[in-house]
Design a protein that fits this description.
With 256 residues, this protein is of the alpha/beta class. It has 8 helices and 7 strands, in the order E-H-E-H-E-H-E-H-E-H-E-H-H-H-E. The chain has a 7-stranded parallel beta sheet, sandwiched between helices. The protein is globular, with a radius of gyration of 18 Å. The relative contact order is 0.14.
C-alpha cells in the first residue's frame, strides 16, 4: 500500500512542486488548498508523475475545514503517513508601526495557526498506526530579518519553536517532525517580495534580485523542486534518525 501524504497549499508554487515530488515517489497525494480549480490541475500532474491524487478543498485557518480534511482522508484511506504543512501567505509589507492589525492576524492565522490545526488533527491518527512524518515549510525569514516583513518573519520564527516542541512530544510515538527553511525561492512570491523591497528601499528591482542572487555561493535562487526533494527525503526511511531539525535549503545563503 502506498504512503498517504497530505500536502497543504498544494495548488501552486512550492506546494505544487512538493505534491509532484511525492507523486513521483509513488505516493497517494492529498492536495489541500482553497482553490479547487488549481488543485484539479495539480492532481492531473501528480497522476502523470506516477502517483495518485485526491483533491480536498481546505482552509487551513478554519478548524472545521481542517478536521473535515483529516476525517475525509482517514475514512478513504485508513491512515495518514505524511503531513506537509506548506500553506502560507506573504502578509503585508511595511514598517511594523504601519501594519494593519487585521492583516497581522490573518498572517498568523494561516502561517502559524494553520500548522497548529493540521498537526493537532493528524497526530492522533499517526499515534494510532505507530508513527509518521510531519514536515513544516518555514522560510529564510524565520532566521533573519528582512525590512518591512515583521508579520511574516514573526510567523516563520514561531514555526521553529512549534516543530522542536512537537518533535519532543511526539517522538515516543514514532512520529518525526522537521522544518525546512527555504532560501529565496524563484517564483511569483519572490518576485512580489523583490518588488516590495525595491519600493521600500528606493532601489531598482534588478538591484534587489542581483543582491538576493549574490548572497548565494551558487549565484542563484533556490528552486521549488529543491524544497520538494528535501521533503521527500525527510519523509523517507533514509531520514529515520532525523527529527526536530530545521533544514536550510537555500543555495548557500547565510542564515543565523
Amino acid at each position: 500500500m502506498s504512503r498517504i501524504t497530505v500536502v497543504t497549499g498544494a495548488s501552486q508554487g512550492i506546494g505544487r512542486a512538493i505534491a509532484l515530488g511525492f507523486g513521483a515517489a509513488g505516493d497517494t497525494v492529498v492536495l489541500a488548498a482553497r482553490n479547487e480549480g488549481n488543485l484539479q490541475t495539480v492532481a492531473r500532474e501528480v497522476g502523470a508523475a506516477g502517483g495518485a491524487a485526491m483533491v480536498v478543498p481546505t482552509d487551513v485557518s478554519d478548524p472545521a475545514s481542517v478536521s473535515a480534511l483529516v476525517e475525509h482522508v482517514v475514512n478513504a484511506h485508513g491512515k495518514i503517513d505524511v503531513l506537509v504543512n506548506n500553506s502560507g501567505i506573504g502578509g503585508p509589507s511595511g514598517p511594523l508601526w504601519e501594519v494593519d492589525e487585521e492583516a497581522w492576524d490573518q498572517t498568523m492565522d494561516v502561517n502559524v495557526k494553520g500548522v497548529f490545526l493540521g498537526c493537532r488533527a493528524v497526530v492522533p491518527h499517526m499515534i494510532e498506526v505507530g508513527g509518521g512524518s510531519i514536515v513544516v515549510i518555514g522560510s529564510i525569514s524565520g532566521k533573519r530579518a528582512l525590512y518591512g516583513r515583521s508579520p511574516y518573519t514573526t510567523s516563520k520564527m514561531a514555526l521553529v519553536g512549534l516543530v522542536r516542541t512537537l518533535a519532543l512530544e511526539a517522538g515516543r510515538h514514532g512520529i518525526r517532525v522537521n522544518l525546512i527553511s527555504p532560501g529565496f525561492v524563484a517564483g511569483p512570491r519572490i518576485d512580489w517580495v523583490i518588488e516590495a523591497q525595491a519600493t521600500a528601499r528606493g532601489i531598482s528591482q534588478d538591484d534587489v534580485r542581483a543582491e538576493f542572487e549574490g548572497e548565494s555561493p551558487l549565484g542563484r535562487l533556490t528552486e521549488a523542486s529543491d524544497i520538494a526533494d528535501m521533503c521527500v527525503f525527510l519523509a523517507s526511511d533514509h531520514a529515520r534518525a532525523i527529527t526536530g531539525v530545521d533544514m536550510n535549503v537555500n543555495a548557500g545563503v547565510v542564515m543565523y
